[in-house]
Design brief:
By secondary structure, the protein is mainly α. The protein has one domain. Helices cover 89% and strands 0% of the residues. It has 7 helices and no strands. Helix 1 packs across helix 4, helix 2 runs antiparallel to helix 3 and helix 6 runs antiparallel to helix 7. It is flat, with a radius of gyration of 18 Å. The two termini are 19 Å apart.
């Protein structure tokens, strides 16, 4: 995330957030094709492209992430962002009936405690 902060400081959060994933795809696509082979890659794209569209649209909401990164220290911003795990664990139990909530909640509370310590003592 430190390199992301550096990139946001040298450009703008809107530009970097809008172009980051496209640049990442351009860099990693040749590696994926070389490892899988062109035919295997084409089959994988045809079978999973539709399922990848919705998560891709949600991931396009990265501009607020990079805007927040431009406003605060990277470690602090990521700590605040990770506090959403506590809410996500609760929603998973409440709405989706996830099991083993104690283990998930323990990890989420531990991460939230780290966030609280950063806020109070940093």
């Amino acid at each position: 995330m430190v390199l992301g902060k550096l990139a946001v400081e040298h450009s703008s959060s809107a530009f970097f957030g809008a172009t980051y994933y496209g640049a990442l795809v351009q860099c990693l696509l040749p590696v994926i094709i070389l490892r899988q082979g062109w035919a295997s890659f084409g089959t994988a794209v045809r079978t999973s492209a539709r399922a990848a569209v919705l998560p891709g649209k949600f991931d396009a909401a990265a501009v607020p992430h990079f805007y927040a990164l431009s406003m605060a220290n990277a470690a602090y911003m990521i700590a605040v962002k990770r506090s959403s795990l506590l809410i996500g664990s609760f929603y998973g139990f409440l709405f989706f009936g996830e099991r083993h909530i104690r283990e998930r909640a323990a990890g989420a509370v531990l991460m939230f405690a780290g966030f609280v310590l950063i806020v109070l003592f940093a």
